[in-house]
Automatic annotation (TrEMBL):
<dbReference type="InterPro" id="IPR051850">
    <property type="entry name" value="Polysacch_Lyase_4"/>
</dbReference>
<dbReference type="Pfam" id="PF14683">
    <property type="entry name" value="CBM-like"/>
</dbReference>
<dbReference type="InterPro" id="IPR029411">
    <property type="entry name" value="RG-lyase_III"/>
</dbReference>
<protein>
    <recommendedName>
        <fullName>Rhamnogalacturonan lyase domain-containing protein</fullName>
    </recommendedName>
</protein>
<dbReference type="InterPro" id="IPR008979">
    <property type="entry name" value="Galactose-bd-like_sf"/>
</dbReference>
<feature type="domain" description="Rhamnogalacturonan lyase">
    <location>
        <begin position="14"/>
        <end position="202"/>
    </location>
</feature>
C-alpha cells in the first residue's frame, strides 16, 4: 500500500478560522492558576493546562458576561479561553454559557449555502448549540445533543475524543456587515461540564455551486 493523503472536507474558500486543526485546544488561552492550587512543577512548563482548578478561572475572567471573539481583531491565543465551561453563581450553583463570534461580510450571498465547521477536542456531559444572528432562535440551527464522557477538564488534559461537525448555514441567515454566531453550552449541573474547541472555520458558498475537497 502506498502513501495515503488525507484531504480535509471543504466546500468553499475560507472566510475566517479560529485555532489550529490539530485535535487539541493547547493553542488557546490558558490562564494562570489560582495561587492556592498552583503546582510548582508546571509553573514554567509548556503544558500550562496541567494545573488544578483552571475551569474556575473562567468565572473570574467573565463574571457577568461571556466571551466575545471578533474576527480580525481578537487573537485566539489570548482571547479564546481554552474550555467553554459553566459559570459559578453566587449561590454555588452553575449556569451555561454562550460565546459569540462576531465577523463582517462585505458581500453576503443570500441564495448560497455557507459551511461552518466546528471541531471539538473534547466534551464532558455537554451540548453545543449553534445560532446565527439571533441568540433566542428556537430550535437552534444546530445542536450536538448531549455528548462526551472524556473527563478531560478534571484530569488537566487538553484533548479527548475528537468530533467534527459540518453545519450548513443558509445565506439568508447572514447579512452584509456585522454578523454573530452564538455558541451555547447550556448544561450546568457541575463546574466541569463543558467542551474544548480544536478548530472553527467558516467557508463561503462553493464556486459555481459545486462541492469538492480542496
Amino acid at each position: 500500500m502506498g502513501n495515503l493523503v488525507f484531504e480535509p472536507p471543504r466546500d468553499g474558500p475560507t472566510l475566517w478560522e479560529i485555532g489550529i486543526p490539530d485535535r487539541s485546544a493547547a493553542e488557546f488561552y490558558i490562564p494562570d492558576p489560582d495561587p492556592k492550587y498552583i503546582n510548582k512543577l508546571y509553573v514554567s512548563h509548556p503544558d500550562r493546562f496541567r494545573q488544578y482548578g483552571l475551569w474556575e478561572r473562567y468565572t473570574d475572567l467573565y463574571p457577568d458576561g461571556d466571551l466575545v471573539y471578533t474576527v480580525g481583531v481578537s487573537d485566539y491565543k489570548t482571547d479564546w479561553f481554552f474550555a467553554q465551561v459553566t459559570r459559578k453563581k453566587d449561590d454555588d450553583k452553575y449556569e451555561g454559557t454562550t460565546w459569540q463570534i462576531k465577523f463582517n461580510l462585505d458581500n453576503a450571498n443570500p441564495t448560497g449555502t455557507y459551511k461552518l465547521r466546528i471541531a471539538l477536542a473534547t466534551a464532558y456531559v455537554a451540548e453545543l448549540q449553534v445560532r446565527v444572528n439571533n441568540q433566542n432562535t428556537n430550535p437552534a440551527l444546530f445542536t450536538t445533543g448531549l455528548i462526551g464522557h472524556d473527563n478531560t477538564i478534571t484530569r488537566h488534559g487538553i484533548h479527548g475524543l475528537y468530533r467534527l461537525y459540518s453545519i450548513d448555514v443558509k445565506g439568508a441567515l447572514l447579512m452584509e456587515g456585522e454578523n454573530t454566531i452564538f455558541l451555547t453550552q447550556p448544561k450546568s449541573s457541575s463546574a466541569v461540564q463543558g467542551l474544548m474547541y480544536d478548530y472553527i472555520r467558516l467557508e463561503a458558498p462553493p464556486p459555481n455551486n459545486s462541492t469538492k475537497n480542496i
